[in-house]
Structure formats: structure tokens, C-alpha cells
DNA sequence: ATTTTTATGACGACTGGTCTATATAAAATA
DNA sequence: TATTTTATATAGACCAGTCGTCATAAAAAT
């Protein structure tokens, strides 16, 4: 019992250290990119000793990128699910999705859009393993959205096709919104997607 | 006369060195990102001595990024203009645009999409001057596209709005195409934009 | 008490961007 | 033509910072 308690506490501590690191990495990678963030910066940002990294991520920096992608896959996947559950129409679903990203943009002073796209552009061509993780992540999100589209009466093939199209438009809007420091592109994309997805 | 010739040759040589550097930087930044490409790599890729960089780009690496953005602004701007001139309908205009990017993707084994987006994500939040250049670049492209839309009978406000929407969809499609190493997202975006832009 | 797991930070080999000092070529002047 | 002045180009030193390793410490389990 005593041993059990300690075991779980220890394990939990280790887990929080690891997930704390991923959270910080997700934040910094988004703002500055993968290559521009050093391990030292990562550690000091979380008051963690440097050696910890190679305990939790034996393969080094690339391992962190993968963990970030997995984490984003889950988090945003959950966001999509919640947006779907809270919506009773296609329009409100799209609105809810856009709303989530808009909030992140504003709260981060337009430094944080999609946590994966920076990694995608920097690494997908260079690091096959990370590229695969990103590809899977994007596919997951699209599939979740498509599920919702189907729930609103769309046939499956069309749903997948339009989920991909919506994904592209959103992803592009996030880049533009960041460079312009404005929600306007996001708003317009929401409007046009609402119009088009029928 | 002799002196004149030498003067222009010298100047031209300097210009080619500089533009050679920008071209190489544009290529490498696209594939690996800004921070991941070192000045050493840039030089050796073009058989240029390292010291030259700070003659042509006194403010250092950031200056190179700005030159790349300006160059991309012109080159792709020209591409948009040509696509417009060669098209007699909205559909063929969009097809021509997509075609250009598709070619780049395939020829680079899906390593080169938009030469600016990587810089946008890495730097727009960190380096104000580069951010401004990127913002202007994007605005320029959208305005060129909107001009074409107007030429095909669209009213101006709608043209600007839809040019932005198209830009977002395309930009997103380029990211997805790179991660999937497939032209499919680009094809679908072309199809849906053709459908929607009326 | 001994072994296993978890955690740590100093260290090294190396690369990063930047800058100053120097060399080469062209123009200008005498 | 000879010589000075200017523009263009290059080389290499510099230090801060990079990632990754490893010998060890602390904690837990046996």
C-alpha cells in the first residue's frame, strides 16, 4: 500500500515532468519554430535540468517534436470532438472550430496558430519519422471533422473531401492571421466554408 | 567605353553573386526552414566564400530572409500575372495557378511548396521587419489575383474577399501536399475553388 | 544491504552568426 | 602613364551557444 502510493506518486511526478516539457516545447515551437528553440531554452523555460531531457526523450530533440505532434493530435482532436458535440448544425460546428483557434491567436498575441504546421514545414521533408507522425495527425483531425459532417447528413465520400478542403482553408487562414495579426482571414474563411459546405 | 564595359560587368557580377545567394537561400529555407540553414551551408551550396555574405547583406541573416521574401514576391507575382494572361476564364486561371505549384512540388520531391510560409511561421512573430515584408508579399499576391477576378467580371469587393479565401485554401493545400507527398489536396482545392468562385 | 530505477548537471566537440582586417579590382586624379 | 582613392570582395578569428554523453546522485524496490 505504502509502496503502491509511492510508486504512483513517483510515476506521476515523472509523467508531469515529461508532459510539462512537451507543453513548453509545443508553445515555443509554435512561436519560433523547431530549429530556433534550443534545448537550454526549453529547460530553463520550465525550470528543468538539462539532463532530464535525455532521460525522458532518449533520442533527443526529434523525440520531443514527435511528442508535441502526438499531444497536439490529442488536444486538438478533443477540441474538434467537443465542438461537434456542442453544435447542432454544420454552421455552428464550423463556427465553434474557428472560435477555438481565434482564441489561441488572440491570447498569444498572434504568435500561436497551428502547433503542427511549423514542424510540418521544417521537418516533414528531413525527418521521415516526424513526417509520418504529422501526416497521421492531420489525417486524424480530418477524419474527426468528416465524422461530424456525416452526422449532419453528408454522405461519407463527400464528407472526407470537404473535411480536407476545410482543413486547407483553415490552415491557410491561420498563417495569414498570424502575419496580419488579425482575425479577419479566419472570419472570412468561416463565412465561406459555411456558405460552401452544403 | 572599355571602362564602361568593365564597370557594368563588375556590377553585374556583384548582382549575380547576390541573387545567386538569394536563390540558394530561397531553395534551402523552403526545404529546411530558416533557422536550420546555417550560413556555412548557404555558402558552400553556392561555392561562395563566407565573408561575402556580410558584404552583400550587411545586416546578416535577417537581410537574406528579406531578400528571399522580396524575390518570391516578384517571382510568384509574375507567375500569377502570367497565369492570368494565359487564361480566358476563372476556372482556367485557377487551374494555371495550381499547376505552377504542383510542378514545384513534384520537381522538388515535395520539399518545396510556398517559399514564404516557412519564414512566416518562424519569423513573423520574432522579427518585425521580416513580418512586414511577408505581410506585404501576401497582400501583393492577393491583389494580383483579385485583379484577375475583376477582369472576369467580379465586383471588386467580392474579388478581394475571394482572393483571400483562395489564398488560404491554396496555402493550406501546399502544406498538406508536402506532408502527404501527394498532389491530391491541391487537386481537390482547385476543384472546390472552381466550384465556389462564381 | 543490494540492486534497479529515476534523475541530474558538468563537460566536450562542434557549429552558429558576426565582425574586423585585408586583398583585389576599378575609377579617378595628376 | 603612375598614383591615389574608391568600390568590391574575401579570409579567418571570435565567442556564444548548440546538442548529446556520461559519471554520478537520489530514490525505490527487492
Automatic annotation (TrEMBL), chains A, B:
Residues 38-57 bind DNA. Keywords: DNA-binding, Transcription, Transcription regulation. The lineage of its organism: Bacteria, Pseudomonadati, Pseudomonadota, Alphaproteobacteria, Hyphomicrobiales. Pfam families: TetR_C_13_2, TetR_N. This is TetR family transcriptional regulator. Residues 15-75 form the HTH tetR-type domain. InterPro entries: Homeodomain-like_sf, HTH_TetR, Tet_transcr_reg_TetR-rel_C_sf, YxaF_TetR_C. One of its GO terms (molecular function) is DNA binding.
Amino acid at each position: 500500500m505504502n509502496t503502491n502510493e509511492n510508486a504512483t506518486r513517483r510515476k506521476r511526478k515523472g509523467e508531469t515532468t515529461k508532459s510539462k516539457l512537451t507543453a513548453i516545447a509545443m508553445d515555443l515551437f509554435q512561436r519560433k519554430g523547431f530549429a530556433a528553440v534550443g534545448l537550454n531554452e526549453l529547460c530553463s523555460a520550465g525550470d528543468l535540468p538539462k539532463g532530464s531531457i535525455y532521460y525522458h526523450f532518449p533520442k533527443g530533440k526529434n523525440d520531443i517534436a514527435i511528442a508535441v505532434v502526438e499531444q497536439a493530435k490529442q488536444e486538438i482532436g478533443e477540441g474538434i470532438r467537443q465542438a461537434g458535440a456542442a453544435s447542432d448544425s454544420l454552421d455552428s460546428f464550423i463556427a465553434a472550430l474557428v472560435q477555438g483557434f481565434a482564441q489561441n491567436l488572440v491570447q498569444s498575441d498572434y504568435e500561436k496558430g497551428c502547433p503542427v504546421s511549423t514542424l510540418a514545414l521544417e521537418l516533414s521533408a528531413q525527418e521521415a519519422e516526424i513526417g509520418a507522425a504529422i501526416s497521421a495527425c492531420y489525417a486524424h483531425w480530418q477524419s474527426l471533422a468528416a465524422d461530424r459532417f456525416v452526422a449532419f447528413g453528408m454522405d461519407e465520400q463527400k464528407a472526407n473531401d470537404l473535411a480536407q478542403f476545410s482543413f486547407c482553408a483553415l490552415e491557410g487562414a491561420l498563417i495569414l492571421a498570424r502575419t496580419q495579426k488579425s482575425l479577419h482571414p479566419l472570419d472570412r474563411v468561416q463565412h465561406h466554408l459555411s456558405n460552401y459546405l452544403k
